[in-house]
Amino acid sequence: MARRLELHPDRLFPADPTTRRIARDLYSGVADAPIVSPHGHTDAGWFAGNQPWTDATSLLLAPDHYLYRMLYSQGIALDALAIPDKGGVPATDPRAAWALFAANYHLFRGTPSRLWLDHVFAEVFGFDVALEPSSADLYFDTIAEKLATDAFRPRALFDRFRIDFLATTEGAQDDLGAHHRIRESGWNGRVVTTYRPDGVVDVEHEAFVPAMTRFAELTGEDVYDWRGYLAAHRKRRADFRAAGATATDHGHPTAATANLSTAECETLFAKVTRGDWTPADAELFRAQMLTEMAGMSAEDGMVMQIHPGSFRNHNAGLFASHGRDKGADIPTRTDYVHALKPLLDRHGNSTDLSIILFTLDESTYARELAPLAGHYPCLKLGPSWWFHDSPEGMRRFREATTETAGFYNTVGFNDDTRAFLSIPARHDVARRVDCGFLAQLVVEHRIADWEAADLAHELTSGLVRRAYRIDQPSPLAAAA
Amino acid sequence: MARRLELHPDRLFPADPTTRRIARDLYSGVADAPIVSPHGHTDAGWFAGNQPWTDATSLLLAPDHYLYRMLYSQGIALDALAIPDKGGVPATDPRAAWALFAANYHLFRGTPSRLWLDHVFAEVFGFDVALEPSSADLYFDTIAEKLATDAFRPRALFDRFRIDFLATTEGAQDDLGAHHRIRESGWNGRVVTTYRPDGVVDVEHEAFVPAMTRFAELTGEDVYDWRGYLAAHRKRRADFRAAGATATDHGHPTAATANLSTAECETLFAKVTRGDWTPADAELFRAQMLTEMAGMSAEDGMVMQIHPGSFRNHNAGLFASHGRDKGADIPTRTDYVHALKPLLDRHGNSTDLSIILFTLDESTYARELAPLAGHYPCLKLGPSWWFHDSPEGMRRFREATTETAGFYNTVGFNDDTRAFLSIPARHDVARRVDCGFLAQLVVEHRIADWEAADLAHELTSGLVRRAYRIDQPSPLAAAA
Amino acid sequence: MARRLELHPDRLFPADPTTRRIARDLYSGVADAPIVSPHGHTDAGWFAGNQPWTDATSLLLAPDHYLYRMLYSQGIALDALAIPDKGGVPATDPRAAWALFAANYHLFRGTPSRLWLDHVFAEVFGFDVALEPSSADLYFDTIAEKLATDAFRPRALFDRFRIDFLATTEGAQDDLGAHHRIRESGWNGRVVTTYRPDGVVDVEHEAFVPAMTRFAELTGEDVYDWRGYLAAHRKRRADFRAAGATATDHGHPTAATANLSTAECETLFAKVTRGDWTPADAELFRAQMLTEMAGMSAEDGMVMQIHPGSFRNHNAGLFASHGRDKGADIPTRTDYVHALKPLLDRHGNSTDLSIILFTLDESTYARELAPLAGHYPCLKLGPSWWFHDSPEGMRRFREATTETAGFYNTVGFNDDTRAFLSIPARHDVARRVDCGFLAQLVVEHRIADWEAADLAHELTSGLVRRAYRIDQPSPLAAAA
């Protein structure tokens, strides 16, 4: 018989009883606050179509690279987990894949995936037994049954999760059809897009050429001319704003920026777009485009997010067989101080521009990012990201950044997930960890209790709403 | 009505009651120990002239880049804070600037500035209400009144703060007039200087040429000849020792050192002094000069401090409008292992030489600095510096260095401040955090209680006195 | 009279009483588990000859660079500690050296050496007074007396320490005579070797040429021909496996790997072996050899350990006078993401290959190593190493790696020591710190208590046995 599954009400709070009591009080004030999710990768089509999901494997396991990367690291073949390769979804029985996952669920002990999944199992699906081999079928069957009900369709869960704002991410070459269908449906859930132009900026991406073709079609611009290319970005940014976007996002290998003259830009652009480039050219072009995007953000008010430092598709064999995004992205050492200077030399003292910086290199928190954000008016710090979106990661983020940048140069939490059902779990973890950190400051008499309560609300709601400008009058609202 | 301001007697001690009790006991043994401040940036002129300060804004806000960098980061103009630009002090009402600061005091929650200021407000000025908009005028008026009294003149506060030793920092081109006036006045406060030759070593500094001119005038040497230049350093080091200095200080962009032949030095020196240099030449010259200074320290016994790794004046726009030291210095990744090798190859096994290393790159604590200091007889570790001079920063320093370098290769606390009134606050924070760390070791049975008590005294008094050689017979004492 | 020496039963457990109680319970389940020591540097000759050791200085002080590096850093001459230089052991009275050590024992407060030594003093030798000047002679005499008894001979201590498996490390040019003598003696202690080919791989090592000569003699291969050289490695790997080895070890300056063609390998090999190489050639050759060794490990099943990132013999003066391994090795910043890619491109998805990665650069734990090990099936994380083999170092290792790599991509503890008597102390520290970390997870409701108990056994026994394949049928067992 399977062991009990129970979410302890004090989970993630500090062990010391006094600190825990303070943390619990702080948490009680924000536990039920609506969710604001300004950065993530859910599929807008879910909310446009509102079709039911089908089974545990395809909903919870197959799309979640956090899960299958760990299983793969222990020698389990991706095929056996029903992970699609370049030929499509393998002919693996979803129930068998789920059973294999259940048999290896112990691998996740101590990881945030385990915390998130147990929350999904207990809170979303109502399980009171733990996932293990003996309960794998119960899980698989129960989940399938529930998913077939209206209460588990995307929009119903969106409401049940009390999501106030949810941003997805689309490329510059996306027609935003799903977002348009959401609007046209009359549904009032606030699901908006984010402008992510990497596909038409990164000439090293294998799909750069078709992305540029689509970019041209959608804008009617001569995107192989530097001025036309910039004009196309401006048009698409306006399209995205009209679809509710308040932000852009940029996922580059490094944080490099550049500040070239127009003539230099034209020469570089001609070189990279005719395919005659070196890796250094490609990097310089991405660098210049960050500065161009910052300039456009200063014009149109879109908040700019920079997510650098991931070595994508590190596993050559797996990339060949399975393609991108298969859990083989590895962080690298990242410089910000020298990298951002060209952009900052041009736009750094703007109070219209807002740039949110992320990192996968925690050694930059106290050394570079907090000092930069604690000085430049245009810079703020995104929350601990990806591999660091975890209790220890969040704690290290607060400990390393608060003393130099304060709380007010941070922007609340991002769930950054494609695992829609885990969104409440992830926000819950962040709220608990933040309240634990604040409780520590209170018990050490570094801030007063009333300040901690105020900060708990800021970290949950205030900072994110202001940083992502989600309550500012938008073109969408103006048009409504 | 403003909220109460109260410094809790247990502030900064660990939450666990047993650990806290041990920390409190350890702290009680060192809380009142005299202050030894071997490295800082107070103005020797204050103690020479002993003139009263005038108001809260010009004393506490305008000179403190920790404060206005945070306010600037949130979009507040420096003009509105009465921060001088290249044209001088702006015509901003000091009271209005103070009110703006008070209205934004919440930005400092969780920062060391907040801890230091509350200590200054409560302990130095006797406030029992917190700084907030409603109390801004009360603060401004009360501070002005108190500053007008004799009890708040520099020397009176020096005595009240129980300062036993205070080092300022002057350039090689400084005539040490203020220090001479202190001596001549017959006042017995021990305020000494520190030899900081960066102005005549860093050819990239915009004031290098006038500094060299003054250097020549003060020494009578041909400072554009390599031998004359070295002789001038020797003369000025002797001048500084005569004014009580026990140490030198070197603030370079990197920790690079070099070990060139005399012929190579002459060639390089000729190149950099005639203005015909590349950035690499400038860097190599600074590198060579660290090794030269180490050689002179081995001769004359002055303790050498190396403070590398700050990217100075990162904000180009602000540097153009406001000049240096406006809160825009950003730490960079710093290498020590390769950088220091040339110097160590020449002087590393000297037991006469003492070099104190600092860093803004905490990733070097356990990886490079503790292993270096735990081996080389000439190397010791300076305390956590600048952005890391904070409760979390100090805790990380001890956790990362103690296991490899021990306590005895560290040198006690530096306040490193130009904010004179905050000196007791800063030493108090350091003593509390160190006692908390020691209490943790005791409660985990890693050291005995009597050892912790001994170490608390060492960290407060013993190590700093020995490391900075402040009780060794000095030329000053010998002449007296 | 000397103070009491007492090992507190709760040492190293967290301060919070609830957490401590959980840690104590977890520890009680693993405290007496047999020791598995898969990586270390004890002398196989001790177990072959089983001769008694003689005195405290030559057994405990002179071979332990952790100890004399700290003393040297405080200005104590190595001669006075009886540390051998290139001329041999200095004519220092061992008793006087021991007294000098005792007089400076306070330098080790807060270091792991202190914890290990006190354990050795109390548990191995039965002292109940602390080491200090007044007890130095008592220590010296008592230790000498005990060492003269049969109960303190190497094999008796091996049994008393309940060591189940002990790996030493030998070079490719070693004839494994001591290991053969152990087997021939009929003693049933499982002491095995590890294949460390650095001496015939690192052309920058001063003894490369004689090592190659011996390598040729032992294998009968033409080791100056690329194919012969590889064949010689295969022969020696077989020899080592026959002597019980389950693993290889590679201590390179960096983690660089390469993936050259056979023709490129031949050209490079010819260049480096005829002495006509640049440092870049030497580095490329080491890099290629890691990939070759990985290929052989995939063939023969030997687990591959990579220990990169130490700048060996940093102190030029000391290297000249005293030679290698005198406490002057300093860690450097280490890259894994780019460095390992060539090897991983060739072998990364093998499930036969197992590579255990170590680091001296803790900034790579969360940024590079945990993400790599949490994806690649062939990669696992070695425990916190060398300077980080300490309570804080182990805690940082778990905090930084667990959330991304989990526990199951780690391999238990390595004592990595030449200080045989400290082996139980080191394993005890590791078990206590791991149980404290697990207790923290339990008290924060991140794992259940039964999971923690299971993990405590895994971290003590299960993971190390599987990772080092010590229970797999070996050629040795097959031959028996």
From TrEMBL, chains A, B, C:
Query: Listed GO molecular functions?
Result: glucuronate isomerase activity
Q: By its UniProt entry, which Gene3D superfamilies does this protein fall under?
A: Metal-dependent hydrolases, uronate isomerase, domain 2, chain A
Q: What is its EC number?
A: 5.3.1.12
Query: Pathway it acts in?
Result: Carbohydrate metabolism; pentose and glucuronate interconversion
One of this protein's GO BP terms?
Answer: D-glucuronate catabolic process
Q: What class of enzyme is it?
A: isomerase
- Which Pfam families is this protein grouped with? UxaC (PF02614)
Catalysed transformations (reactions): D-glucuronate = D-fructuronate
Task: Cite the InterPro entries for this sequence.
Answer: Metal_Hydrolase, Uronate_isomerase
List keywords of the entry alphabetically: Isomerase
Family to which this protein belongs: Belongs to the metallo-dependent hydrolases superfamily. Uronate isomerase family.
Protein name stated in the entry: Uronate isomerase
Q: Which organism is it from?
A: Sphingomonas aliaeris
